[in-house]
Write a structure and sequence with these properties.
The chain is α+β, with helices and mostly antiparallel strands and 60 residues long. The chain has one helix and four strands, in the order ββαββ. The protein has one helix at 33-39, and strands at 6-10, 13-17, 42-44, 49-51.
Length: 60
Amino acid sequence: MHYCPLTITVNGIDMDIKPKVISLGCPHMILGLPWLQKHNPDIDWENGTLQWRQHLWKQK
């Protein structure tokens, strides 16, 4: 299995991640259940958006 370390920015918050590389086609990304449980973002399934919970994260 191949991994590709990278930094993502969501709502001004930088996060270092080490995702598995699979062929999905750009710009899709799968955020696994362990990642979602650890970071616990607010997810709007209808609009396909993700936001950090303000009480857990401080913007840089």
